[in-house]
Amino acid sequence: MDLIAEFGPISLTNLIKNNFLNNTNKKLACIINNPFVPWVTNVASEFKIPCACLWIQPCTLYSIYYRFYNKLNQFPTLENPETDVELPGLPLLKPQDLPSFVLPSNPFGALSNVLAEMFQDMKKLKWILANSFYELEKDVIDSMAEIFPIKTVGPLVPPSLLAIGEIVGGGFEVLKKNAVELKVAAREAVADGGSSDRNIQEFVDEILATVDDN
User: Could you tell me what percent of the chain has a pLDDT over 90?
Assistant: First the structure.
């Protein structure tokens, strides 16, 4: 991670300069990165290129991390490791329900620092795109609307990869029924006019508007 953080910005800067700044026939309208390369946002900002982050985990985790790294809510500490966590749009969370990154016993120091860098410097991001769909996590998505909105554009995997029959076969009929219902909802979200389809179109329209302004 350290080597990528050291040399990645140099490589990306050179790529932009060589392929776009010196080429009047091409324009870089947007850069999409992921949470584990936050330095991409800094490079994009230097060139005044709009930047989006593709969040590939649940929106629930996005809300938890954002509130934790920006100190918006109380979380377990070394002094109070058994603290329950109350967050808008979510049920009461026990310490065992939380991701390791927000616990005082966090064993992933380096990765946690990368996430902290992203969430504490989000003003350089114009969009957060999520590999989820509104109907699946609407309460937590709505809870972030006034803080730092997240656009659901998923699911970004084809239904064939979900393999619901193989995963929940046998006697798990209730689980299987719920999974099938979610699969149908996911298909509707990405279909023409669905929630994710509308968000993708809105995202594209905003990029085009940015290009026109420049």
Answer: 64
